[in-house]
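User: I'm putting together a small comparison set for a docking exercise, and I want a reference complex before I start. The sequence is below, and the ligand is guanosine-5'-monophosphate. Could you produce the 3D structure with the ligand included, as structure tokens?
Assistant: Of course. I'll restate your input first, then give the structure tokens for the complex.
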Amino acid sequence: MSDTIFGKIISKEMPADIIYEDEHCMAFRDVNPQAPVHFLVVPLKPIARLQDISTGDEAVIGHVHTVITALADQEGIADAYRVVVNSGAAAGQSVFHLHFHVFGGRRMSWPPG
Ligand code: 5GP
């Protein structure tokens, strides 16, 4: 597992408000939410950045998206939500274990900052 905060959450060394887990991914609430609903969907595989995925990761990346839609239903935000991946420090990535932010429960503006 990656030596990051998210690796420690996945291995249960660190606590988190986990809302979903299966053999490929885990979802937990962001500790510093930027919307009324803000959770992270994280592949268990320690891929550092979106830019580091390979063809062998296609199934898990696709699976993450079906999990996102199911959790959007579960969290009551299916009508409108935003999915964000920050890939690289200059794009805002601070934890180098790939994760998909899911935001909902408020109106979103565009463009993002
Ligand atoms: P990034 O900046 O890498 O795109 O997103 C990292 C996210 O992880 C941030 O939104 C931050 O609030 C969240 N985060 C950082 N540390 C923890 C933690 O220990 N637990 C949880 N649940 N979220 C965290």
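Strands lie at 18-21, 25-29, 37-43, 81-84, 100-104. The domain at 5-104 is CATH 3.30.428.10 (HIT family, subunit A).
User: Thanks, that's exactly what I needed.
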